[in-house]
Specification:
By secondary structure, this protein is mainly beta. 13% of the residues lie in helices and 34% in strands. The chain has one domain: Jelly Rolls, CATH 2.60.120.
């Protein structure tokens, strides 16, 4: 005879569904609102920078651009923003995500993602740069393997006592190890805390064709989208030292890139990079900066 008891698998199914719903709710809750960690820095007129909870749109027209900054300064971390760049004719338009110490004058440290717009049909250039104690001149430029104006992508900066790595999605595009303890004169941003910043601004004087091609305001306004406002970083108010191995981004898995990441990084350098200051010996009196010998 058949049993009148319900199948135990139904109880299991209910448990699984509840767990999935809780996980989904937790995932949704993890999406940080802009004002949890960031504040408007300029362009706060309700048009040039528009906050929609977990997304921000920055618009540049002839009257202004806009920018925002983190509320805290950080001494290490794994920072990211998801960005969708302005599309179409964007010559002269510079869209950024970067870390920068304070004050900005003099001996600042800085780590830059700078997206340089161009004429319609010409790929946007991603320029990265690293300043240490006020000195930059470490530009690398590449064309990405996708259109960064077509959709949101993740741009990340891992900065800890061991290395500085810049990622596009999960692909490393720039690596700087911290060799200051063993290589005299080796530059690494290790001594100053930094803000997270982002902006869209008019770079007509230099960004496209060395400044020969300017912003065409008739093609505007130019709008970029930003998401991903959670921050994994050691704030200056933290009771834990920012170099502590207890912070996950300082752990053993983040002290060197993996073999797979190294292969992907070399692939980017070979196939997508079109300028590397380390290869520009004429710029440095037929030599290269010291860090270029350890790339």
């Amino acid at each position: 005879m058949g049993s009148s008891k319900a199948c135990p698998c139904l109880d299991l199914l209910v448990v699984v569904v509840v767990v999935l719903l809780v996980a989904a709710a937790g995932s949704a809750a993890a999406e940080a609102a802009f004002d949890e960690n960031y504040a408007v820095q300029w362009g706060a007129d309700g048009y040039h920078l528009v906050i929609r909870g977990t997304e921000v749109n920055i618009t540049m027209d002839q009257s202004s651009g806009a920018g925002f900054r983190s509320k805290s300064m950080y001494g290490s971390g794994f920072f990211h923003l998801r960005m969708k760049l302005p599309s179409g004719y964007t010559a002269g338009v510079v869209t950024t995500f970067y870390l920068i110490s304070q004050p900005e004058d003099g001996g600042r440290d800085e780590v830059d993602f700078e997206f340089l717009g161009d004429k319609a049909g010409v790929p946007i250039t991603l320029q990265t740069n690293v300043f240490v104690n006020g000195r930059g001149d470490r530009e690398q430029r590449l064309h990405l393997w996708f259109d960064p104006a077509a959709d949101f992508h993740d741009y990340k900066i891992l900065w800890n006592p061991y290395q500085l790595v810049m990622f596009v999605d999960d692909t490393p595009i720039r690596v700087l190890r911290n060799l200051t303890a063993t290589v005299p004169g080796y530059p690494f941003p290790a001594k100053q805390t930094m803000l997270v910043r982002a902006s869209v601004w008019d770079g007509s004087g230099w960004a496209t064709d060395g400044g020969r091609t300017k912003v065409d305001w008739s093609k505007g306004p130019f709008t970029a989208g930003y998401r991903g406002f959670d921050v994994s970083g050691c704030a200056n108010s933290s009771a834990t030292p920012c170099g502590s191995p207890d912070l996950w981004w300082n752990g053993g898995d983040y002290r060197n890139i993996t073999a797979e990441q190294r292969a992907a990084y070399e692939g980017v350098r070979k196939h997508y990079m079109n300028y590397d200051y380390c290869a520009d010996k004429g710029r440095f009196n037929n030599t290269v900066p010291v860090e270029c010998n350890y790339a």
